[in-house]
Write a structure and sequence with these properties.
The protein is an alpha/beta fold and about 375 residues long. Helix 1 runs antiparallel to helix 2, helix 2 runs parallel beside helix 9 and helix 12 packs across helix 14. The longest helix has 20 residues. Bound molecules: pyridoxal-5'-phosphate.
Length: about 375
């Protein structure tokens, strides 16, 4: 079946008890046993529940994995994937990853004996040079948040295989509709489902989609042992969001391109970072490895004062963290999402004081452009 059909139907079979076309929300913590040791497949909601199973089946299908596990947030999913490693193992991480990933590694996992290096994974030679005998995992975000730098997934997958390392790709910015890392050779995909998969900014969630049974066994162990699995209501919300993923992403792609072109032509904008523009240094790679250019973009206004003027004058675009919802969100990465990065690391990663990030929603694009245009007049 096609992507949109799978997104609507996999895991969403009509309820066998009542015929309800939409699966009920199983808002229960425990399940009564028919007799000692005899269950109907569920015993306790931390371990598993029908809404979680349904969502996990759908995600595995959409990403082309063999299994999926969903968590209370993207960070919880990413944390569980890092816990596949052991003390002394070495990990290579894309520089300019999401600030929360940077914080998790440098302020928490570093104390548990994990070794890691932040590397420009857009450069396969630099990635190869960073590999050590103890390297067990390469963790890539593509495009990076908020600098929109791409990593060639197939090239890094080749490197990972040569060195018996696991390649993990954070696919949050594009969703499985626009990019399928497992088909390009990655072993694991992670998501902040809070973003495009849910799409409506009404819950947080995370996912790990896997290809190897040994990873599935370990991640399921972690999910039920740490109690980080996603709750029934939130699984239901994400499942509902996924049903419209294909049509939403089509519109996101169109609006993202139109807004990027508008900003690119605006005299007050110093540069626009959007892989869909021919001026993006990796435009050709984006066209090759993605099915769409997405709706995330950043642009530089040259100074914090200019960025502040714009952010304080937008009316339709909402000044907020997060991304991937139907509504357009605007943010200042250096002071918001990436505030936990030391300033020198941020600057080196290209996250300047004048950089503004847009998550272009699916409103009428003329309204979005008019809003940005009036706000830019104040800069
Ligand atoms: C690319 C990316 N990965 C992971 C995360 C973490 O996800 P969550 O906020 O759901 O924990 C985020 C959050 O913004 C993100 O942008």
């Amino acid at each position: 079946m096609g992507f949109a059909t799978d997104a609507i139907h996999v895991g969403q079979e009509p309820d066998p008890a009542t015929g309800a076309i939409v699966a009920p929300i199983y808002q229960t913590s425990t399940y009564v046993q028919e007799e000692l040791g005899k269950t109907k497949g569920y015993d306790y909601a931390r371990t598993a529940h029908p809404n979680r199973r349904a969502l996990e089946r759908c995600l595995a299908k959409l990403e082309g994995g063999s299994s999926a596990f969903v968590f209370t947030s993207g960070m919880a999913a990413i944390d569980s994937v890092f816990r596949l490693l052991r003390p002394g193992d070495h990990l290579i991480v894309s520089s300019a990853v999401y600030g929360g990933v940077y914080r998790l590694l440098t302020q928490l996992l570093a104390h548990f004996g994990l070794e890691f290096d932040f590397v420009n994974t857009a450069d396969p030679a630099a990635t190869r040079a960073a590999i050590r005998p103890a390297t067990r995992m390469i963790y890539v975000e593509t495009p990076t948040n908020p600098t929109m730098i791409l990593t060639d997934i197939a090239a890094i997958a080749g490197l990972a295989r040569e060195h018996n390392a696991t390649l993990v790709v954070d696919n949050t910015f594009l969703s499985p509709y626009c990019q399928q890392p497992l088909a390009l050779g990655a072993h694991i995909v992670v998501h902040s489902m809070t973003k495009y998969l849910n799409g409506h900014s009404d819950c947080t969630g995370g996912a790990a989609i896997l290809t190897r049974p040994e990873d599935a066994e370990r991640i399921y162990f972690l999910q039920r042992s740490t109690g980080a699995g996603l709750a029934p209501m939130d699984c239901w919300l994400v499942s509902r969001g996924i049903k419209t993923l294909a049509v939403r992403m089509e519109q996101h792609n169109k609006n993202g391109m139109a807004v990027a072109q508008f900003l690119d032509a605006h005299p007050k904008v110093k540069r626009v970072l959007y892989p869909g523009l021919a001026s993006h240094p990796q435009h050709e790679l984006a066209a090759r490895q993605q099915r769409g250019f997405g709706a995330m973009l950043s642009f530089d206004l040259g100074s914090l004062a200019a960025a502040t003027q714009l952010l304080n004058h937008v009316r339709l675009c909402s000044l907020a963290e997060s991304l991937g919802g139907v509504e357009t969100l605007i943010s200042h990465p250096a002071l918001m999402t990436h505030a936990s990065m030391p300033p020198e690391v941020r600057e080196k990663a290209g996250i300047t004081q004048g950089l503004v990030r847009l998550s272009v929603g699916i409103e009428d694009v003329e309204d979005l452009i008019a809003d940005l245009d009036q706000a830019l007049a104040h800069v």
